[in-house]
Design a protein that fits this description.
- The chain is an alpha+beta fold.
- The protein has 7 helices and 14 strands.
- The strands form 2 sheets. Strands 3, 4, 5, 6, 7, 8, 9, 10, 11, 12, 13 and 14 form a 12-stranded antiparallel beta sheet that branches. The protein has a two-stranded antiparallel ribbon with strand order 1-2.
- Strand 12 and strand 13 form a beta hairpin.
- The longest helix has 62 residues.
Amino acid sequence: MAAHPQMSHAGFSSKWNCGQKRAGVCQLPAENQATMTKVPTEISAHTSGERARRLFLLCVLSAGSLVLVRAIPALSGDVAGAARAKEFSGGGSAGRGEFTTADELVSGVISNELTDRQELLKWIFVIEKRAGKETLTQEQVETQEGPLYRLLAIDGTALNPVQREQDDARIGRLMKDPSPLQKLKQAQKDDEQKLQKLLSLMPHAFLYDYDGAEENLVRVKFRPNPDYIPASYEERVIHNLAGTMLIDPDRKRMTKIAGSLVSRVDFGYGLLGRMDSGTVEIGRVEVGPRQWKTAFINIHFSGRVVLFKTVSKDQYEKRSEFREVARDLSLSDGRELLDSRRLSAMKP
């Protein structure tokens, strides 16, 4: 450390005056005494400043460590999501990134969805749906004549005897005249064909990009492809959606799709119809080996165009407890199945 300018060896010796003694002790001159008094003060101030700076740095480091600790879970999720998306975009380990682009991944997913629909298996399942201000719980079985359901509860409360009698009478009328079920079955068939066509167009109607991951699922965002020209009203509405898809990359299946209209869609300058706004959210679950079913529907559209016969513009449904039934299940057998399951549920 450099010596104090007034405390060098030569300077200090030259200032020492032993000729002046007081009580037998050599005394410094007055100016030297002032200097010696000033030095401890400066050293003390310097030490206090160092302590303050060290304390400030310690506080900064502690705060930074706390922020980092709290951020680690989120950072880990982002890193894992990026790695998961990278793995399936061709940037992961060899042999696992089968699809090199998001477009190719979606094409594989759509191919599996279309193959699944060609098998046309029949199922029995529970539906929770909104009807006006009420929430209805139904059990529905798919039969040769069409879908038959039994009402189980209204707003979470089991039917009272009067409501049960009314529902039994409704089912009885359908057993005598199943034409309403047959019309519903045909409408579902028409919608299924329309949906298959729209699904087949998805790889061409949209542009796709990887958008991270959620747990073990890859998230892909989509937006309208400006080079695609829709050929129908339905295609124009669907093509005007933008949103995200969640994909199981191992099974190459879609588990969720959510989108919203990016702008208003007019038909015939608005004279033939229009779609002002809208949101779509659909969830899919695996119900068997290579078998996936729609488990969640949340659709809200504002406009004067109906896209599907069996899907309303404002629909909310949850479906669960899927079980496969015989493909040739008759209407009478379907009713017996619903009755037996209701009686089983009533047993203590």
